[in-house]
Every structure is written in C-alpha cells, then in structure tokens.
Amino acid sequence: MTEISDPHNLNVKYLKLVNYTHENRQKWSYEVLRNREEFYLHWPLNKNARETISLEEKNKKLLEKKRDAKKALLGERILLCQNHAMYGHRVTHVVKTVTDTAELNDENDENDKMWTRRVRLVWMSRESWEKYAPNTKDVIICDKRLPFRSGNLIRFNAPSIVSLKLDSLKLDELIG
Fold first, then answer.
1. Residue 176 pLDDT exceeds 60
2. Which residues contact 98 (CB under 8 A, 6 or more apart)?
C-alpha cells in the first residue's frame, strides 16, 4: 500500500509524466501555460509513433489515449511531472479535472490528433522550474523505475509506488 504524506490535502488520485517530444525535451511541455488558471492536458501520440506506424495503428493508439484521458473522474486531481532533457523529471503542477469527458483535438493535420482534458490549476511550482520544481524521484518513491510513461495516467496507489511525499510541494505555491 502506498504511504502518503499530504499535509496540504492535495488529495492527488493520479500521476502523469509528460515528455515534450517536439523539441527533443529542450522545453517544458506546459511552459507557455504557466500563468493560466485553466488549460488542456494532452494525450498525443509520441513523435516516433506519428511518423512510423500505419493509420490503423495510429487509430488504435489514439483509442488507448482516449481511454486514458477519460480515467480521472470530474474533480479528481492529477500530479503533473514533466521531463526536460537538461533538468530531468520535475513535479510542476497539481491540477483537477473540470470536464467529465475527453475531447479529440484534430484541428491540425492528421499526424497531430490528440486527446485533451480541461483542467484547473491547484498548485504550481515557482516560475523557475529547473531551479525550484521538486525532482520527481523526491516526491514519488518507487520500488523500481517510475511506473508511468507515454503521458498516461497512473493511480497514486499503483503497486510499484512505495510512497507519495506531497509535503515537498511548497504550501506558498498553493493556488486553490
């Protein structure tokens, strides 16, 4: 069972690890959204999958992304961890879902289809994420490698997660 240290009552239910593959992880995925109260979380296909697999396989993977984007119930909270090539995995946000459905964003070309979910900011690390955002390994203690990748959600109490140390998220950064 996962041990949780949560003095701020963040009540996180899911974890999401994000890699910004468009820029070879040289930027933060949600950097341009730093000052927004609400925004969309993304469930895209990774760059390699978009470029190398058949349309049938893309559609199958998009269906998996849809199921994942719909996992969290309305109002459930997600700990957002971002991966940067230079600064590693950092915990940057806690968000809560404000819609009960996922939406297909297909405004761009066929290769850029993705599922999205509208969320509201609950907590965000200080501006300089490379300096102030806690390392994911200091917040999520696992008995082996981090059990989530490809932007998928994983429940906070997954068997490989030993403890969740939310007390390392600074209270003065709590939004609401």
1. no
2. 38, 74, 75, 118, 119, 120
